[in-house]
Amino acid sequence: MKHPKLVLTGTIVVLVLGGLAAKRALTDNKNEGPKAVAVTRGALVDKALAVGTIEPRVEVGVKSTLAGVVRRQYAAVGDYVRRGAPLLEISPTPTPLELAELRRGIDLRQIALANLEQELERQRELRNQDLISQAEFETAGRRVAEARTELGLARDRLALQEAGKLDSAGSRVESLVRAPIDGYVLDKSVEIGDPVTPLTPYQEGTVLMRMAGMRDLIFRGTVDEIDVGRLKEGMPVNIRIGALPTAVVTGRLDKIWLKAKKQEQATVFPIEISLTEVHGATLRAGYSANAEVIIARRDSVLMVPERVLAHRGDSTFVTLRGAPGKTEERRIKTGLSDAINIEVLEGLTQQDSVLEQPSREIH
What we know:
This protein is elongated. It has a six-stranded antiparallel β-barrel. It has a four-stranded antiparallel sheet with strand order 3-12-10-5, with no helix packed on it. The protein is built from four helices and 23 strands. It is an alpha+beta fold. It is 26% helix and 42% strand. The chain starts with a helix and ends in an 8-residue tail after the last strand. α2 (96-128) runs antiparallel to α3.
């Protein structure tokens, strides 16, 4: 049986040896010093990020100028229709009071027309007797013509409310809502039997459908105020679509808004980007996307990570490993940066290696 003191002594020896080994390892690591980073050659791109969506350049809300209910649908969501093609048929739903007022309006205009025709006959007799001028007789004739036109309009309004269509002056007027543009039906807001509020000078009216030409898509989004001062119209853009990771989409910066807006406690500027090339995907309205606006690009340049730089005043320095146990500080001239790597214009070659900046001790 081992003596307890011997066991305790052995344990202390193991702990001491382990501590010495750990201290030696730390000392060795300190002696190695900071790691070296090679100077590399490659491409640098300075870019600004915009967040937004893919949208049609022109999107139209289809409305009706006639009140009523939807009686028939001619086009469904996703259909491509030509301008002038029927989309919906609206059935007028006048109240009994409205119909009574329309019929009463016809009666009143008939009475007014009859009175003006009698007045015209009296004016004709007076003119034949040379008791009034030709101008006065012609004025009476114009009043009769205007009354006949008003009576015709009143009859047309009644016919349109009762039947939903009419033939007037050789042309057919009907309660069809037709496509205002060539394009696709993106969505619809009404179903068969839904009421429709018409578009008038006093009200916006019900949006029945939305249409757009999907062959002309753009990117609409926002860029942070920090970057907007570096942007110019015409800059090339790479667009990444979250739902289509393999799609290659490029564009051109077309518009930068002059006025900022607040978005989630940040100040951003709206921008608009035209799509120039789309490969490997069919784009749909509403896709979320990120746009990288290329501000500047340098190919085949010497570069180092920005983290290895030291700045003093207007000068920039890096540290190189010299003779064993010694380092050399060298002043360099830098160029384009992508916020990770920076271009080296003078002071280094591709054969050089620079040291990482020493880590700051936490007290």
